[in-house]
Fold this sequence. Notes:
The chain is α/β, with parallel strands linked by helices and 253 residues long.
Amino acid sequence: MRVTFLGTGTSVGVPIIGCRCAVCKSRDPRNRRMRQSVWLRTEKTSVVIDASSDFRQQVLTFGVDRIDALLLTHPHADHILGLDDTRAFSYWQKSAIPIYGNAETLEGVKKTFWYAFQKGPEGGGLPRLDLHEISGPIKVGDIDVEPLPADHGSMLVYGYRVDGFAYLTDCKRIPGETLERIEGVDTLVLNALRFSPPHPTHMTVGESLEAIKAVHPGRAFLIHMGHDLDHEELDAYLPDDVSPAFDGLTLEL
């Protein structure tokens, strides 16, 4: 399986509109972070986790040409607003796009994209979203997916495990049950907003490193990083088995 990080930034992306800090002005392309999303694919199956606010630009930039399923972590804007741009995939694939998430997430999709669920002439302007509530393992083509419940402050957020790859974003805490299900995975992907101060709904770098120690994966990558984190400086700070991800980074698993 091949994994490509389509976006590794926070809800406002990096650079931030109007900001003149060193990271936002950086010429290092690894400091340019679109909103959070990742693409998993085998020779037969293509799955995307989250349709970010930058979805259209991401799929054009990194060559996503088919979506067999879209897994949603939670219903915040930076993780679902790209759903409207799945229209092009429905057109070329001649089918609705299967969308998976927990009940709260799917309800958020229905509210945000209310026009997609009302009867009326479709034309070419409506996304075709085939919603599926997920609470246990599913199979998409030849990819087996296991949802991983986590705590996003006051909201349930889903991470996902595919074989030895585990992906969790927008976590503040990882429940013990989920820790048991990902313990010792080959590759762990986990959010890390900044060094300090603490955030009520996201892990800091220190909190993320503590969670990584609890999981003890073969390797780990940090995502959902804000403009407080310079890629090169962060990479030098992290342990050898932990790296900051960046947009376009591709892993062969």
